[in-house]
Amino acid sequence: MLSLVCAMLSSYSARAQSSASYTLEVALDVQQHTLRSKGVIHFTNQSTRPLTELWFHLYLNAFKNNRSLFLRNPFALGRSGQTLREYGYIEVHRLHSAKYGAENLWLKSSPHSPGDPDDATDILVPLPAPILPGESVDLNIEFTSHLPPVLERTGYAGSFHFAGQWFPKLAKLEPNGDFAHFAFHPHSEFYADFGDYDVRISAPSSFTVGSSGKRMEEKTQKGIRTTHFVLRRAHDFAFTAWDGFQELSEKIGPVTVRLLFPPWHQANALRSLAALRFALPYASELYGPYPYDTLTVVHPPEAGAGAGGMEYPGLITTGGLWFEPYLGSHAIEAVTVHELLHQWFYGLLASNESEAPFLDEGLTSYAEIGVMEALFGAGSAFSGVGLKVSLAALHRANAASYAGDENIGQPARQFTGFQALGGLVYSRSATILLTLERTWGKAKLAAALRSYTARFRFGHPTPTDFVASIEQTLGANAGQFLRTALFERGFIDLRVESITSRRKPATQGQWLGRAVVIRRGNLKLPFDVALHFENGRTERRHFEGAADSLVIDYQGASELSSVELDPDLKIPLDQDLFNNAQAITPKSPRRALDLLLAVAQLLVLGVLP
Ligand SMILES: [Zn+2]
């Protein structure tokens, strides 16, 4: 829909303001595994207050020693499960600006994160004179990044290098003049202002360099190739370099997709590409146009697998074993689609992932289910050996095991562990959205998300913005459902408590029936009940779902044989699906079959597709 796309584009550009832009020259030493960099951060105070300090994230310092907030945490390395063999860190040599003469501002930087002498990921730099509202300064910076062996997405493995979170990054400046700075916790991801990235990367000419942004000119001198990359309106920049990459490139619509992968992963790369041919235009239609010329897709070699399964603006990493595509698994497509969808929920909306991780991972996981179902139907996670397993079913099962444990909407650092964060932020958020989709309607939720992603593109939305946006399209009940589900440990379990049937006294062939239904939990959702009768007839009744219990009475010519709650499985959030159906104690094979069918249907709807 071109007109919609044009309207969206014009409203987006008005809001895309550059607050922190980086022009950097970086030299990769593939022997020392270091990045020596110098350049300029062009910073504009877009807040309403004069700034007397700057805050920098030095994320790489998470791996500086084993006492950092990241590594001393018992949940550290939760994402990859790897252990640290060598340390990685950033040394800032010099930070200066013409505004302050020749003074090296870094000399007065705090040596550690606030209140934490062992951590150096959240660094304060006092300013000799304030930067006024609206004022821009060029901050000249020189630094060296020492990459660790690949863990938690960044580092080296042999000659494979992946540089993620490798440069000193200004914390996001909020409109009130506060910097949203935080130390790097193992549960947390990132948050930053939008800006332009203009980066020249030098590496040995035998290496293939892949990066965020559009590849501009290249020049080679004395065996060193320098490649210029430009990425506009983004909040991060990552790159990789390896002398073992094979390369594949294809134009999908207006976007050049560049895949870099080990030669033995050709089958994975082709599957990633096939998934992107569908997913890139599909997601652009649903959530607004992909904003960059280029998408670089990196499949790390096995030794660098810790760099896999991650998203950066304009660059995603996939992963998986070379033989997986031959086993019926759609894992390579799922990770490709998942990381691609982050281009919208992480890249373009750019919510605070430290404070509200569900806004990115939850929405991305939900969107991933939709794309994978459109691609592979009921076997969206796995199809083979006569078995189909859907991604929705996997998320549903994972979501159920963490129901009511912790608030989904809480900050990343507050989760009791990475497993709980995974179950709640990824799976339960996705299952909540699936419940919204099935109860309110797919088209309506799609419209709500389209308007949310359009309104907050480049807009850093908060959880309140998200709920209000959904409420605006789907109504007050949907808003209340979301608030309870996300912030009040919401759960729901519909249960058939009892079913009875008897002949009506003094009548010819008339029957009375009664089913008692219980709704446990603080979530209230409308649902259907199917009453099945001995003569094969089925009657549907609809309930608004606000009551804690429900007595359903029946009178008619055929005996009530079984009752089934939510027969279309519009509430995948329902905690226990096995208590959703009950039959009159089987007196005949017919009734036993009814019950069997009811349970089988739940299995098919709830566990398989
Ligand atoms: Zn993710």
Quick take:
The chain is α+β, with helices and mostly antiparallel strands. The protein contains eleven helices and 30 strands. A hairpin with a 2-residue loop joins β14 and β15 (224-234).
Structural features, described:
The longest helix is centred in the C-terminal third of the chain and has 23 residues, at 418-440. The protein starts with a helix and ends with a helix. Strands 4-6-2-1-12-15-14 form a 7-stranded mixed sheet, with no helix packed on it. A 5-stranded mixed sheet has the order 17-18-19-21-20, covered by helices on one side. A 4-stranded antiparallel sheet has the order 7-8-16-13, with no helix packed on it. By secondary structure, it is α+β, with helices and mostly antiparallel strands. Strand 22 (382-384) and strand 23 (387-389) form a beta hairpin. Helix 7 (418-440) packs antiparallel against helix 10 (476-487) and helix 9 (463-474) runs antiparallel to helix 10. It is built from 11 helices and 30 strands. Mean pLDDT is 91; it is low at 1-16 and 604-609. Bound molecules: zinc ion (ZN). Zinc ion binds at residues 338, 342, 361, 364. Zinc ion is lined by residues 338, 342, 361, 364.
